[in-house]
Amino acid sequence: MNPAVGRESSAVTPDANAQQLLRLENNTLREKLREAEETLDAIRNGDVDAVVVSGADSKPRVYTLETADQTYRLLVEEMQEGALTLTRSGDILYCNRRLAQLVETQPERVIGGSLARFVAAADWPNVLKLIASKSKGELGIKTDQGRIIPTHVSFSALRGDGFGSEEIFCCIITDLTEQRSTADQLRSAHAALLAQVAERERTERLLRQSQKMEAVGQLTGGIAHDFNNLLMVISGGLSILDREPTPERRQALRDGMRQAAERGAALTRQLLAFSRQKELHAKPIAIPRHVEGMRELLDGSLGGSVTVKTVFDRDVWPVRVDEGELGIALLNLCVNARDAMPQGGTITIAAVNRSELREYGLAGDFVEISVSDTGVGMDAETITRCLEPFYTTKDIGKGSGLGLAQVYGFAHGSGGSVHVESRAREGTKVLLLLPRSNESPSTVPRQMEPRHGVSTPGPALCRVLLVEDDVQVASLTSAMLTELGYEVIPVTTGQAALNELAATPDIGLVLSDVMMPGGMDGMGLVREMRQRRISLPVVLVSGFSAAAQRDAEDEGIPLLPKPYTLGDLAAQLASVLSRSGAPQQGPLP
Fold it and tell me: CATH number, domain at 399?
């Protein structure tokens, strides 16, 4: 044997073996591919009853034509939405059990029929559009029992060539009844919540008004006593004025009557501020000025056996609160202090600055207003409950227990707090803590009439139409206008004023009360004048200026509050006439 030949043979053998193996593997793969193609052809032609497949665990699994789509059928049959297949014209080819349940019938009574049977006639054209556009929407499905069920429908096209040439669509239907019910419940709950909020707000308004009226009720006896004294000064002075021979004595009587009238007007304004119904309006308040402004009210309501002292820091910060609510709170505290001192005593109202306060659940700069008494004090149980609404230790008819509750509500509503310090037989101190305001309180000085009257300017330069239903007030106002040099035309109703304006062309100004009989008040007269294009200056007069102020401001009409003096009237008319460019009277001295 040739060695060279042997070496060559041994070098070639491995490559020949590898190529032989590759040829065998390729043949095997071709055979399997051929068998797979034959199987697929047999499946397509319907020649195969079953297919056996070896799984990953080497256990064979048999899939027949009857069970090949079993998994998908189970999914469709058990789903919570209704499912169906249908033609473009709406003929139903298949439906699952959920769809049959939804329309309250059996699947065999659905399949083969038209979807139009389960849709309201008016909605059917819209359904055909949804099918054609393969889109979705909401639809009312009609059951066999005639009920209409709100649903969401979604149409899509089925792909594949197992349905012939006709296009087949799938529809998924979701019952919205529960969702709509939940939404209705949420809407009902929301409406109920809004109603509760509105009722709470109404109750709070009524409670505030009740608290105000209780405070006014506490004042009745003292205020009636004060007014009787004021009326006595006026009526008594009038009765002896003409009998007094000396000018000095007559002047002293006139000064006393004028002061009595001014005190009565001040008390009336304060009572109206307490009793009127209005929304809370916060503004910067200077505590010392506010308390001193309440002095007349406190002296009249607390009685002569009680002394009121005030102690204020030199530079007490202002607070931003509702002025009327603050007044009621202080009044309630003072009335409670008075009732705790049946034999009389001293009430001390103090105010101090509390910088960077960290007590009573508060933090920041606050003003501490305290009302202290020398009365009987409270025990521990009473202190615990004294701020509760309607809790009171007073006898029946002596109080409703709303006073301190109002103070508590006012303080917390203003961003502050209330703290009560008391011991039996040692008096009580109530601390009212209100947040500091960085704004400056407005200081509008009260316009006072000159002590020695107003000089008349001479002949009338303007004719005034006076609209006033009260005969005595109309007579007095006419005299005041005449004293100022105006010519006066008095009428008693708004309609009479319109008639006079139509008949008398040279009227220069209208002075009208706000509240009048006949169905047309002062604001109604203003609006009717504008409707008739009567462009005359108008001044309204009201004894309830707070109630009329907003309407007058909205209409741009000046408002003169009752009672007013000759100087007040002269200044107001001169101001209005100067703005309108009409003739006016000379300046006051």
Answer: 3.30.565.10
